[in-house]
Design goal:
The structure is a homodimer.
Chain A: E1 9-13, E2 20-25, H1 32-37, E3 44-50, H2 54-67, E4 71-77, H3 86-98, E5 106-111, H4 113-125, E6 132-136, H5 139-145, E7 150-155, E8 158-165, E9 170-174, H6 183-199, H7 202-217, H8 221-240, H9 255-264, H10 272-289, H11 295-307, H12 319-327, E10 332-333, E11 336-337, E12 339-344, E13 347-351, H13 356-365
Parallel strand pairs in A: 2-9, 3-4, 3-5, 5-6, 6-9
Antiparallel strand pairs in A: 1-2, 7-8, 10-11, 12-13
Amino acid sequence: MSPTTLPARQLTVDLGPRSYDILIGSGILAELGTALQSRFRGQRLAVVSNETVAPLYLAQTRSALEQAGYRVTPIILPDGETYKNWTTLQRIFDTLIENRFERGDGLLALGGGVIGDMTGFAAACHQRGVPFIQVPTTLLAQVDASVGGKTGINHALGKNLIGAFHQPCLVLMDATTLTTLPHRERLAGLAEVIKYGVIWDAELFARLETQLAEILAATAEPVIDLLYRCCAIKAAVVAMDEREQGTRALLNFGHTFGHAIESLTGYDGWLHGEAVAAGMVVAARLAARIGLCPPEDAERLHTLIRRAGLPTRLPARPVEHYLEAMIHDKKVEAGKIRFVLPTRIGHAVVRADLTTADLQAVLADHMGDP
Amino acid sequence: MSPTTLPARQLTVDLGPRSYDILIGSGILAELGTALQSRFRGQRLAVVSNETVAPLYLAQTRSALEQAGYRVTPIILPDGETYKNWTTLQRIFDTLIENRFERGDGLLALGGGVIGDMTGFAAACHQRGVPFIQVPTTLLAQVDASVGGKTGINHALGKNLIGAFHQPCLVLMDATTLTTLPHRERLAGLAEVIKYGVIWDAELFARLETQLAEILAATAEPVIDLLYRCCAIKAAVVAMDEREQGTRALLNFGHTFGHAIESLTGYDGWLHGEAVAAGMVVAARLAARIGLCPPEDAERLHTLIRRAGLPTRLPARPVEHYLEAMIHDKKVEAGKIRFVLPTRIGHAVVRADLTTADLQAVLADHMGDP
């Protein structure tokens, strides 16, 4: 039952000398080696994956690479956000160094956002920077984490606090990998899709509202379309603002509250996308509360997230714990937490002038069982 | 007995948007805060130093910064190359995060090459990159390590294998800090000065031959002159080739053998400059052996290094251990070790075509007691 290969759709992230392509298709993992030949000049690749993804896709990936003449060294890490730390990263460095990887050799991330972030950061630091390739296998990594060059690991006090901007030389996503993705993770990825709708693309948001069931069920053309649309937005935003001096910050919609949830629950209770989903609901309600966003738009978002089966409320913790967790976020400036807030469905802004009273109220309103 | 303040001499490392100035003078540490005001827009600085340098220069540095309105958080690390690792780096991250350092806040390295490399790497990775400032207090860091943006830590299998290119926003060196530098470390720094003479500047080399004693004794004008000359070479080379695709590799003269010495002796027996000194002698002899360099030029280098009181021979280890250590070096390409070899005093090239027989012979010739 091998999937039909469709011609890959292609996007370019335009970053001058650091530009790269995104290939999106169904069954295109088999073309990985060929796709790399014009884009990566090394001879060896360390394929970094985890214990869940490797049994599913490592053999196929390896064979595609070896057929194109690359030598492959697999590095299999434990699965989960709790392992996104220096100890796990060391295993990558140790393998690269013991196997005498050279400056021209590369790293390939085969997995979700955690694998992509860690592999990218290892590539950024190994010998002060070597090439890397993203082959995202989760919806979340495909629509978001694999594009744009943000890499890193977590610190006990906050997510992604240690990292680097390091752009890949190719992102290749095969929608057929989504057939093995657990439903819960698919929903978590959908949260980032919804995010693009809120901050950038009202038409995408409307499509999600009308075709939610079809999108959740589909694996071929409709999903490829969705991946393409999200990656096109991400590529445009990153090309405008690679290092997040401005526009790129909009992509953090829902993430300030979301990171606080992840930090307070120790990174293992909630999936990133689930935390972002609840975070978006709270952020939209905050925007409505201060009169920035029509309450009915906040309500539309709440409804869509609820219909998608994603969480709309925060785990119950003292409000001060949330405020404390958010102050450690990277988006803090001059002691003020910066929030991405929608002004309507399809448009968002960054605001740093929220009062503690408003934050406390909106946190309290959305906490625990309704 | 406060030293006379002389007008600082200024150089610029021309790297487009990442350009920065090098200020060189005597007694100019007091002007650090003023010098930063036009070059660094943050409000807080973590001053990273070590247990040896902090008691000598932290108070003065802190006061210069606070007078200019900066808030200072000192981070004092243990002293020595053995601590140039992730465990020590974690202390920097922990302090920054616990003290809520933000993206606009900076790190300032006050110390030698180890402090500069670690502080720079921490600045490269903290929140994916924050500003940093170099205030080198050793001759080696002043003429070499503080300029050019190479940062990193060691791995058990090799030096600086994990790191980043991250340029400082200012390098300020006060020659009076050399008055407290142990003689042995001053000599180690001189090795890098000699390096510039061999690879780039025959006149500098000749001046070292004729004025060695004066240069070793002097602290004011003659040393400032020397710092300026070395930094001017380094700035020119880095501006030509920031990421070491070509010319910059010449600065590694003596370092392939040198890193092997450091790796084989566990980073604590030999100072970096001492290892480079012996490494340069061996590299020059290798160049003479293959007919690339006149034997009399290799001999001039040997003589100068001996007269300076620096080591000219390698510690006795099996030859294979040296070959094994060198193959882990970052400069390996397609399995071939790349050596920087002089063609004469004042000029060098990169060669990757050395035979194992030549390497074995030259290693054996220069090992252990003569």
